[in-house]
Design brief:
alpha/beta, Rossmann fold, 6-stranded mixed beta sheet, 10 strands, binds adenosine-5'-diphosphate, binds magnesium ion
Amino acid sequence: MSPTNSPEPRVTSVLKARNLAKAFGNNKVLRDIDIDIHRGQVVALIGPSGSGKTTVLRSLNGLEVPDGGTVTFGDNGGDSGGLAIDFGAKVGKKDIAALRDRSAMVFQHYNLFPHMTVLKNIIEGPVQVQKRPKAEAVAEAERLLERVGLSDKRDAYPFELSGGQQQRVGIVRALALKPQLLLFDEPTSALDPELVGDVLGVIKELAEEGWTMVIVTHELAFAQHVADEVIFMDGGVVVERGPAAEVLRAPRQERTKLFVKRLQHDV
Ligand SMILES: Nc1ncnc2c1ncn2[C@@H]1O[C@H](COP(=O)(O)OP(=O)(O)O)[C@@H](O)[C@H]1O
Ligand SMILES: [Mg+2]
């Protein structure tokens, strides 16, 4: 407990990851990855294919269990709602479930359940996993669908939707979980170019609303626009990090320079 006359901390930590390490067989995919995310902050994670970006997101979301390192949610892990996991020690199912409860992923290929309507896709997590009342979950889903302009798709199946619409449902499904942290894994890279704008527009609005998020993206102009911090990864390590404008417009490391230059040429 802090004394009542002490000022509120200016930044509130949502997540601290330290020394995350992960190998698949002999392939060391993550080596000592550190990430700090504060409430309302948008972090863009960039880097070449195979650099470990997806594995970082999956590790933060409990879809992958790192071999070592720590993840802490909340200011010191001991706060109400705080969570501290040491992957170097024994990690139980409860820890993983607690980790999964704190963030929600938006996947590159949407990953909607094909046999479920849009509405069912959205309420599945809140109702089945979080045990929230169904009526409440439905009302929330309908409100969120309206927000992204998809009210009329409530009873449609994923195959009846465009990629852009499916991804907006994917975003709504993540929001419906009311996570502390949103994780986007190349949310627009599977979309036809004319559908990218709608999805980026929704993500930008979420950033403006104060959602805390990590976005893996190759859309550097977008990253510069919405991200507070950019982290450049290559070969399982963080090569460079800093304010978006600095890393994207005046990178210091050779590898970052090459990557940014190549992507900008591709655009
Ligand atoms: N489940 C897995 N089994 C084996 N190797 C994997 C698995 N997932 C990822 N990898 C390997 O880990 C490395 C990093 O992958 P990934 O995190 O998907 O990178 P990125 O998202 O930056 O493209 C790649 O070499 C990839 O082949
Ligand atoms: Mg990836």
